[in-house]
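Per-record layout

source: Roseivivax halodurans JCM 10272
name: Flagellar basal-body rod protein FlgG
length: 261
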Amino acid sequence: MKALGIAATGMLAQQTNVDVISNNIANANTTGFKARRAAFQDLIYENVKREGTQTAQGGAARPTGVDVGLGVQTSGVVRLNTQGGLAQTGNQTDMAIDGRGYFTVLLPEGGQAYTRDGAFQLSAEGQLVTMQGHEVDPGIVVPENTTSLEVTDDGTVQAFVEDDPVPVELGRLTLTTFVNDSGLRALGDNLMQATVASGDPLPANPGDPGVGVIRQGHLENSNVNIIQQITDLIQAQRAYEMNSKTIETADQMLSTANQIR
């Protein structure tokens, strides 16, 4: 009886599903977080009788076959890259991306990472950095005695120093896009890394078509829909229970068969 193994694959799949959903719920308030969805596909089939074979010698072709599936497997965890809502903070170094781009940051060990989390801070040297201290690329250094900082939608950063009414241009932030955003590898700390699946990073200026603009004084909320996640969690729980019930039923049927004299 294959039901035991088939139901076991279903329970494993629903365990993964619950893990993904629980991570979504846990990150409901994480800045720039994108919800994930577990994707599944059926396993191979055992062909007991093939379609198109003759039903009898010289008879007609069989219109349908007898195929018994062997269960399910997790094919991937898909990142849902829909736009999260923008929350106004009023903080001059907070920046949200209204569009599909990513900020670029420099990793301490070398290389680049990408983030939607624009909760930036200033280092002791005035460098614009992430909450973990990673430098934003291209680098922006804010002078001492800066009274206010302005970032335009196209990424131009200007500082008003002391009483000078003329702002000093510090540089221009860029955004990066990817052909396949779902192919980015999550590193934790709201950072992503390019992979072969994501394609090469495509630097662009904020405001370019298909890139997005920067909103100063805002942060992007998580795009997790709590109501949807709770609904999915209940559905996963019921599916897990049904698979466990299948195992229980198959065990009872085997026990009945073993008791036949």
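summary: The first strand starts at residue 36 and ends at 42. Residues 3-81+224-258 form one domain.
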